Give the backbone structure.
Amino acid sequence: MNLRIPGPTPLPPDVLLAVGQQMINHRGAAFERLFGEVSAWLKLFFETEQEVYVLTSSGTGAMEASIANTLSPGDRVLAVSCGSFGDRYDEIARAYRADVTSLKFALGQAADPEVIARAVREQGPFQAVILTHNETSTGVLNDVQAIAAAIRAAADPAPLIMVDSISGLGGVRLQMDAWGVDAVITGSQKAWMAPPGLAMIALSQRAWQAYETAQNPRYYFDLGLARRYLARHQTPSTPALPALYGLHASLRRMAEEGVEAIAARHRALAAHCRQRALDLGLGLYAQEGRYSPTVTALTLPDGVKPNDVLKALVAQYDIHAGSSKDPRVGVIRIGHMGHCSIADLDAVFAALAELLSGEISAASR
Amino acid sequence: MNLRIPGPTPLPPDVLLAVGQQMINHRGAAFERLFGEVSAWLKLFFETEQEVYVLTSSGTGAMEASIANTLSPGDRVLAVSCGSFGDRYDEIARAYRADVTSLKFALGQAADPEVIARAVREQGPFQAVILTHNETSTGVLNDVQAIAAAIRAAADPAPLIMVDSISGLGGVRLQMDAWGVDAVITGSQKAWMAPPGLAMIALSQRAWQAYETAQNPRYYFDLGLARRYLARHQTPSTPALPALYGLHASLRRMAEEGVEAIAARHRALAAHCRQRALDLGLGLYAQEGRYSPTVTALTLPDGVKPNDVLKALVAQYDIHAGSSKDPRVGVIRIGHMGHCSIADLDAVFAALAELLSGEISAASR
């Protein structure tokens, strides 16, 4: 199987072996050693001095945690979106009764720092700006560094800047401390090469100050509770051990490879993917210059239906690519995050070349 | 290792093998087959016609889901507790701004149906009564059937009856439909012999009616969203696949063994555990007649510290038993849920016999 959806991603052999280990006491010494190492390694990739909390949930749970821990009902939030996952963050803020101003960019386009800054200046003050780093649904990478700088230049005090980097971090750099990001969120099943089941989140000191007065209800996702338990290298509730075993093994590999080396490898994989697509006559859905290093959204020749291609890839090649998250976006999505090689991508394009030379239309008739 | 904490529990070999399988597309056909089987098998053990929802979280997350999906701020809740996990449910309801009346029974005692009924009659009306089925911290099994009947006899309409059976269900019967329970919650890492990472919850039709008007914020734990996705055998967010692979393998075994056969086996294991404890001169912490079939809390001879015994069991025998959850409860806890044999328990008591014949006091000096 060539699993090329944008998460869950395939596990390297050593990670898979780690996942299959027997259960242990999550209040015992072996667990505390493992969790202590995971926490230390995560700080390298979040590029932060803050602690990183590991939650047993999907990334969506950590998005909710960022809202539940820092905001109160009625707080004004600017929700920046350029796709399905930006819309999801917006919906979560609304579910918690924030007073949300939606700022939506066209699908396939990146969020524009200057447009965001203008909204902050003219429609603020906001308690928080929430946005997506890597919009998985369209294959767009937002320039979080420029966005954060523009927001800070537009308001003093600046709103909290909270970033969903679920499908970015681990494959794309996000310098939380240097860029002044207040909440960073990611998920184990993306660039981290670990199974789904864990979300990771870090808060800045400013976000922790907001925690002290935030009135949203929280218990399972209470990061204050997570902070108390992390001090002894534990979690408040029983964590998803197999995913944690996997994350521990993958972080060991990742720490050896290094933050910038991994990011460079992802940029190279993405460039290769785009070139192969263009060679085949396919289109790139994302705005030029804002291509995601971890997932590429491809448009198909006129008359070829994405679902027909996806089904044929599974049936004839055991290649699993991603469908569109959004019915308005007619693409197939190729994940190249985490454990992915040039050869994995070449196999996808060899199959696409065969299919597009006439096979698909035959299969779908 | 002899893992005898009351969860996570050891995985049988076939379950462990299943856990270590490669990732798949959680929006693909293989996943939908697997998840469809898991859902069908869970209904057998919940003894309900309702759908059972699988959440990626610990059991605590599903406790929160029961509150978030059925209640509104200010709703009156009777929180029945006879230990740490009953207290936790109480705290979650308070975190969501319910108007909570706490009804606490002495540690080691079971919740008394008549006392609960009186509270419902005299201090009601309540929107919900929340309680624990199997109080893991003290080794007490509450009589949910009698409690539910007493509540219904005490108020019309009856409050919602919501039960944390995290460490019970799968090893202890809870006839959700026949007993008229409105929310049942459990966790994969207990009697289900699967890894931690998944919680399971079912709601009655009455609870689903409450969902329609409940105002508490919810997104990640929104069971309405889970219901829409379950219709196509999927989950709203990416689920903890290794735990789900494990749960699928364990449920296959469990469905073959049968609901009552499994419950009988747990009763026999618990009876054996108690007899061996009494033979050794140890005490049973729980009220006579309300012993848990899945976990036994043992009191030690005067002057012997639980933590010394637990440390010596690990260091000298690689036996991992549970500490007290509550500083007021001086016990060690022996889990015998899920994958546990008479021989596993005998090994614990052989070690305890050696330790208590003088070794511990030497070790702790």
